[in-house]
Amino acid sequence: MVTEIIEERTPIPEKACIDQHYPDISGVDKFFGSWSLAKGLRHRVIEETGLPISFGLSVN
Predict the structure, then answer these.
(1) Are 24 and 10 in contact (CB under 8 A)?
(2) Rounded-to-integer distance, Cα 4 and Cα 21, Å
(3) UmuC domain: from which residue to which, for each copy (predicted)?
(4) Looking at residue 28, what is its pLDDT?
(5) Using an 8 Å Cβ cutoff, are 45 and 37 in contact?
(6) Rg (CA), the chain
(7) How confident is the model at residue 46 (pLDDT cuts 50, 70, 90)?
(8) What are the backbone dihedrals phi and psi of residue 40, each rounded to the nearest 5 degrees, phi first?
(9) How far apart (Å, rounded) are the C-alpha atoms in residues 42 and 35?
(10) Fewer CB in a 10 Å sphere around the end CB: N or C, the chain?
(11) What was the pLDDT predicted at 36?
């Protein structure tokens, strides 16, 4: 379920293993803001699955 949520909302989802994803959200700052997108994904995952989730953002 988590993978589906991330794949729906990010342009380039990358799944590293069962519990780690590295979605490339380059360029979304112009439209949504990286922080807002990540925060929204986290909220949706928690709400729909009940699973705890953390995230980190970094520049490349």
Answers:
(1) yes
(2) 11
(3) 1-60
(4) 78
(5) no
(6) 11
(7) very high
(8) -65, -40
(9) 11
(10) C
(11) 87
Rounded Cα distance, 7 and 9, in Å: 6
Predicted confidence (pLDDT) at residue 55 exceeds the cutoff of 90: no
Q: What is the dihedral of CA 12, 18, 60, 41, to 10 degrees?
A: 60
Report the alpha-carbon distance of residue 21 to residue 6 in Å, rounded. Answer: 8
d(CA 33, CA 19): 24
Supply the pTM of this predicted model. 0.78
Strand partners, 20: 17
The residue ranges of every structural domain in the chain are 2-49
CA distances from 25 to 19, 32, 36, 40, 44 (A): 18, 10, 11, 13, 17
Residue-level pLDDT at 50 = 95
